[in-house]
């Protein structure tokens, strides 16, 4: 598995100005790229995926980052459920969780999407357990956050996990909105 280097992973958005024509161009990112950008800016796995799906209408980026802060490090550093997977589930809930609490059909639909998302993550990485994911990559799982520097980003596989989890959520959310898409 190729690991991300911080400078490679951050998608830098540039507004290009055509000086004499006053034309502006912007580069947009998909949710996976945005999740990697957040992760490489220092946010944890869960914050990065959830933050990539934040919007000002339902949940601001600031709120998503705050709400998911304790889910990093496999749930507060316990190295259990991968934070990227927790963020992915948050993103699915943001899109499909607006239902009446007694609507078991809507709950079932969301839970089915969550199980599908987790299965896709497991299909690629064989587990959703943070400790196991890190050990497979040759990283020592520790309960406390590590200093984020070039060495950290060059050794940790987490940028791959946040990107893939965000892309899964994006695909399943898009599929729900447009069922004819595959």
Topology (SSEs and partners):
Elements (H helix, E strand, L loop, with lengths): L5 H4 L6 E3 L4 E3 L5 H9 L5 H8 L8 H7 L4 H4 L7 H14 L7 H22 L4 H7 L13 H6 L2 H20 L5
Antiparallel strand pairs: 1-2
Helix pairs in contact: 2-3, 2-10, 3-4, 3-6, 3-10, 6-7, 6-10, 7-10
What's the quick description here?
Helix content is 55%, strand content 3%.
What is the gyration radius calculated from CA atoms?
17 Å
Mean pLDDT: 87
Count of folded domains? 1
Number of helical segments with 4 or more residues? 10
- Residue windows where pLDDT falls under 50 for at least 5 positions: 1-26
Q: What is the strand tally?
A: 2
State the distance separating the first and last CA atoms: 27 Å
Helix content: 55-70%
**Global outline:** globular
The major beta sheet can be summarized as: 2 strands, antiparallel
Percent in strands: under 5%
Order of helices and strands: HEEHHHHHHHHH
Which strand order does the major sheet show?
1-2
Task: Indicate the structural class.
Answer: mainly alpha
């Amino acid at each position: 598995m190729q690991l991300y280097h911080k400078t490679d992973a951050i998608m830098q958005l540039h507004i290009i100005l055509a000086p004499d024509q006053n034309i502006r161009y912007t580069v947009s990112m998909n949710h996976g790229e945005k999740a990697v950008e957040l992760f490489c800016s220092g946010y944890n796995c869960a914050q990065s995926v959830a933050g990539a799906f934040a919007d000002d209408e339902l949940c601001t980026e600031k709120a998503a980052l705050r709400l998911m802060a304790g889910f990093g490090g496999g749930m507060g550093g316990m190295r259990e459920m991968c934070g990227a997977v927790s963020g992915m589930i948050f993103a699915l809930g943001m899109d499909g969780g607006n239902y009446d609490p007694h609507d078991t059909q809507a709950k079932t639909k969301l839970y089915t999407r969550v199980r599908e998302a987790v299965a896709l993550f497991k299909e690629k990485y064989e587990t959703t357990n943070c400790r196991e994911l890190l050990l497979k990559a040759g990283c020592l799982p520790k309960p406390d956050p590590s200093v984020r520097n070039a060495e950290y980003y060059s050794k940790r596989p987490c940028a791959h996990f946040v990107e893939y989890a965000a892309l899964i959520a994006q695909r399943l959310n898009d599929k729900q909105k447009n069922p004819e898409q595959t």
